[in-house]
Amino acid sequence: MHRFFYVILLVTLCACATKPPAPISRVPPGNLNLAEVKVQPNQHISSEVRWGGTIVKVENKAEQTWVEIVQRSLTKDAKPNLNSKSSGRFIASFPGFVDPVVYEQGRLLTIIGNIDSELIRPIGEFNYPFLLVTVTSSYLWPKEVEYVRQEIYPPPWWGYDPWPYYYRTRPHHHD
Known about the structure:
This protein is mainly beta. It has one domain (about 15-145): CATH 2.40.50.140. It has helices spanning about 1-15, 35-40, and strands at about 50-60, 65-70, 90-95, 110-125, 125-140, 145-150, 165-175.
């Protein structure tokens, strides 16, 4: 009986294993990280990478859109890990128009693409070296929803509320 329980538990846990979304599931061969490429960027032109991070801004141009991203390491499911240290910023170049309302500041984005060149662009008064990556596929992660517990009725006069119907949860969107 115990073996049956463990088999069911194992199958359930395996079913819960996370996989990357289809557009970004493939890891390019020799996938370099941003810190490695920044040391000698010209040696890595045309290299294919899978990078991700937090969107800083979107800049639409005549034929393409540049999305500036603060790089973060990726988890097993290829989602940017907000708790990881960043190696810097890069620009993801999309063909055509990308809506800045959809790809808004703070959203998480993972891309697969080829390193095109290094650009020097200002961040404030500092000239920063960005790597430009031409995007071949991408995944914009859904906004995170956090549920918070909110008191909807005042607690009883004795200050302790043993009944859960005094509380409800509601979604809280991070802005």
